[in-house]
Amino acid sequence: VGAALPVDVLTYEEKTLSAILRVISSGLVKLWSALTLMGFYQNRRCAFRVLQASPFLLALSGNSRDLVL
Amino acid sequence: MSAVPMPPLRGLRQAPRHLLVCEKGHARHARSRHAAHVRDHAYNCRVSFLIPECGVLPEVLKSAIADVGEYYLVRNLSVHELVAHEFIDAFVKKGSCYALTYNTRIDQDNTAALLPNGKLILSVDKDTYEELGLQGRPSRYSGKKVMRYIITIDLTDSGFHPDSKKHNRVLWALREKKPLEFDFLLAWYNTGAEGSTLMSYFSKNQIQALKPKITFSTLRDLQCPVLQSNELQGKPEESCGTEELFEWLGAVLNQVSFCYFGEPKLAYWLTLTVHGFADSPVSWRENEHGFHKGGENLYNFVIFRNLDYWLQMAVGTYDDCPP
């Protein structure tokens, strides 16, 4: 996907192994599908979980689904 | 072998719709809608301030934050308890009572919410709707095959008094026909009057009093955009527009390290960002809110020194246009 469709890694946090990716709107489904189907990286099993997706970067700074009381 | 018509592949490249609206106002103007917009957005999970050039938090803000009251988490609360007249008289008819189911997903689970105007909103799946037997309407975002229904009950309606047919039917549906039970987030704001508190009313349930978690952080060397309150579109080489500000703010609050601007300039504004609950059944007022690929419903104030403000309201796909 990265070669055919430009994807930016805006942030990466080693501690939580989480990142914010940016892609053009028309590429959302392709990128999401690619992440879902990616099961291996350099012969190691891996999985990607999309925590939040939004056209607004600001929306990513607050996710009520992360609220744990 | 028969052929099955496939939806056009171009559908895969279409981005789900979203809306960002911006209005400009002045806080002291008689017809300013800033207070109404804030009041009409009932369920919020996060509030952030960004104050440029601010080393020490102003006292007035410190005390406002310290005065933020408690909210409550009540586990395994039956919805019929919110329809009981003792509850309505004690909390719904006096002051402003808010309730929202905790840990329910608006795109998958049944959800309930109580608005401060006394309306109880139940967002339920098809099976629950049919079992409850209460009058509702299909969800606006359910597609051709309706899988979700919205039931709205006005608890303060004069026709909803304790012995009315309406009240008895609702109570029967929620208590006997299809009992619904959730963990609820509750809050009650009442000026003055003595009486019950939520803590004492629900003392027999598992109730926990909670206070919002507050964090402060100082961002050094943050270059802020120049904004002119009259120039919503920005002025080339002079000031940034609302969309640029919105994106810049998103980058700052998500700790994206970007070099947006050349020279550091003094910023005479601050921002206040409020995030709504992704799984709330409503956004502003009683506008239905849904979760498509995201449940964003947030707003951001940019407040200038002269009390001019920009108010940006953003919603996702399964949302009405903000008011």
UniProtKB/TrEMBL annotation, chain A:
Leader peptide range in chain numbering: none
One Pfam family here: RNase_P_Rpp14
Keywords for the protein's UniProt record, in alphabetical order: Membrane, Transmembrane, Transmembrane helix, tRNA processing
A Gene Ontology biological process term: tRNA 5'-leader removal
Keyword Iron among UniProt keywords: no
CC terms in the record's Gene Ontology section: multimeric ribonuclease P complex; nucleolus
Claim: Hydrolase is one of the keywords in the record: no
Gene Ontology MF term list: ribonuclease P RNA binding
InterPro entries assigned to the protein according to its UniProt record, in alphabetical order: Pop5/Rpp14/Rnp2-like, Rnp2-like_sf
Annotated TM spans: 20-41
Family label: Belongs to the eukaryotic/archaeal RNase P protein component 2 family.
The protein's name in its UniProt record: Ribonuclease P protein subunit p14
Organism of derivation: Phalacrocorax carbo
